[in-house]
Write a structure and sequence with these properties.
Layout (H helix, E strand, L loop, with lengths): L5 E7 L6 E7 L9 E4 L6 E7 L5 E6 L6 E6 L1 H6 L3 E4 L6 E6 L1 H18 L4 H23 L3 E3 L6 E6 L2 E6 L5 E5 L3 H8 L4 E3 L3
Parallel strand pairs: 9-13
Antiparallel strand pairs: 1-2, 1-8, 3-4, 4-5, 5-6, 7-8, 10-11, 11-12
């Protein structure tokens, strides 16, 4: 009996929001030849999987939430021996990529699409206005975080960002400290733009 080592990975294209689903074999990625992925709809060159010097995998996947590419390092044994698993946006905490059997990955992407629709279940007018503020707010938060000015006093800095309507919640998954940032008006966005740092304190 021949056991085929194969994984399917899937994610959403941040440009056209289409699903990208591709198979990967055990020998498709080497230390000198990464696996490159493109969107089948808009043909944009997107994620890559490469190998590090220890034989582990470096996964670079585009994010439909914050429009940035996130990089993950996964040990080889963990990569091949784990069943279905997901990788998430480091800023929002939402799933952005899945690895597993083909049917499992496709089902996960279908559930993700349903979740996204429910997440933004608003009227078109409110959605457009809210989305624009939220996108700008996430960009600002990313700039603050990139400068090392978004952190928790516990020192672990395992931060997650959640979106609920017009509210952005930044939470430390280690100690539970959090801050809620409202994005209901343009004035809320201006206040965030004027902030130089955000320090989470456990309440």
């Amino acid at each position: 009996m021949i056991i085929e080592h194969k994984k399917t990975w899937g994610y959403k294209c941040p440009h056209c929001t289409g699903d990208v689903v591709e198979d990967m074999g055990l020998f498709d990625v080497t230390s000198y030849q990464p696996l490159e992925s493109s969107c089948p709809i808009c043909k944009t060159r997107l994620g890559t999987i490469s190998k590090d010097k220890n034989g582990g995998y470096i996964v670079e996947v585009p994010c439909y939430v914050c429009q940035e590419a996130h990089v993950f390092r996964i040990p080889q044994k963990l990569f091949w021996n784990r069943p279905l698993f997901s990788l998430g946006c480091t800023l929002s905490g939402y799933d952005i990529c899945y690895f597993g059997e083909n049917s499992e990955v496709e089902e996960s992407l279908m559930l993700l699409n349903d979740e996204i629709l429910k997440r933004y279940e608003m009227t078109d007018e409110i959605l457009d206005e809210c989305d624009d503020r939220i996108r700008q707010a996430l960009d600002i938060l990313q700039e603050i975080a990139s400068g090392g000015n978004l952190f928790c006093l516990c020192g672990k800095n395992k931060l997650q960002v959640g979106l609920e309507g017009t509210r952005i919640t930044i939470r430390c998954s280690t100690c539970g400290a959090f801050e809620i940032i409202k994005m209901e008006t343009d004035e809320d966005l201006v206040r965030l733009q004027n902030r130089k740092s955000i320090v989470l304190v456990k309440k």
